Amino acid sequence: MPVDQYINEQRTRQPSNQSFRTTARGLRELYRLLGFIIDESGRPVVATPLGRQAATFAGQPLVTHLDFWRSTIRVMIHSTDQGTSHPYQVLLRLVGQRPGIIRAKCALALEARNDSPEELARIVALADLPEDNIRLRINVKQSNWNNAKKILPSWAEQLGDVIATRHQNKRYRLADAPGQANAEPAPTQVATRTPRTSRPVTPETIARAGLAEFHHDPEFEVPINIDPTAANRLRLDRLRRHNLIVTELAARLAHVGAQLYEDPFDILALTAAAGLLVEVKTLDGTDADERERVRDALGQLLYYEPFTAAPLAGHATIHKIACFEAPISDAHREWLNDSEIGVIWTVGNGLFAADARATGVLGRYLEELR
């Protein structure tokens, strides 16, 4: 119907039931979660720099800006008075724990109070209940439930992180690796596994990637207002430092018998008892750069984890480690610890120091890092 006719028809209903208003509220909430807008009560809605960047992609094919959406969605934060979680990471973990889960129950990713294993266990237990029982248990309206189940699973499909059945009542399982939903299915796994995109490496062959492979990695971006020759030199220097840290850490992990893999992560070190998933970040010494690198490490480790850990209890556990070129602030270290991420950093001469969480995770391996 014509827009004017639609608006007039909607205005005959209660404001809470006017679909154009509920849609607007839902979009504003979504854009707040993504960091695209500042929407404070009584004030005009303001687009953030990230939101303005997203707006420039309007009308373009998704493939041209997939890296932007992937990095933005994986660090999306949902905060309540009970804590902070990363809904997209929760979704991937939930699908990993319950392969074949129906789309409706994926709404539970927005129910998580934080990113802890205990909270994930609570969400997984809720997913085993009938859908109506879940809604009653968490006290959510049918309309809110219907909205919640639409967004995250659709993103996961478009980013190629999950494989969906083509039935009307969609069911999901993880792709074999991030963005690999269209790849040939991997054989059934019975233990900690590596994505099919990953490759086995040694300390001598790891981190030999060229600069082109890091074109979309924010860690290797430089200001655009400097001379191109100087910019390329800065990129190469940062890549060299990054790869040197990866190589040194890989050598120490290999010394204790770990099998090493890379791609898409920096290091996956597998032992008979556990797996160590490591992301390495260089630092330029500024507070702004540290903030960005900490956010990157958090998003990548949470994002890669579901694709490397087998979803069955009793198998090898994946431990997440963020490795930095230098010590980071206590606030950032504690923030990473809250998401079950241990922190280590270089101290020179190929040696590393670790915080309490990393020390507990690495155990005897830590002796090889000092």
Summarize the structure.
With about 375 residues, the chain is an alpha+beta fold.
What do you see in this structure?
With 370 residues, the protein is an alpha+beta fold. The protein has helices at residues 3-10, 19-34, 49-55, 66-74, 87-97, 117-127, 131-138, 142-158, 228-255, 287-308, 330-338, 356-362; strands at residues 37-38, 46-47, 78-80, 83-85, 101-102, 162-164, 171-174, 199-201, 259-262, 267-270, 274-281, 317-324, 341-348, 351-354. A hairpin with a 2-residue loop joins strand 3 (78-80) and strand 4.
The overall pLDDT average reads 84
Total strands: 14
* Tally of helical runs: 12
Give the terminus-to-terminus CA distance: 71 Å
Q: Given the C-alpha coordinates, what overall shape results?
A: globular
Secondary-structure element string: HHEEHHEEHEHHHEEEHEEEHEHEEH
Biggest sheet: strand arrangement: 8-9-10-11-12-13-14
What fraction of the residues are assigned to beta strands by DSSP?
Answer: 15-25%
> Main β-sheet, in a few words?
7 strands, mixed
The helix content, as a percent range, equals 40-55%
Q: Which value, in Å, is the CA radius of gyration? A: 22 Å
**Class of secondary structure makeup:** alpha+beta
The parts where pLDDT drops under 50 for at least 5 residues are: 210-216, 311-315
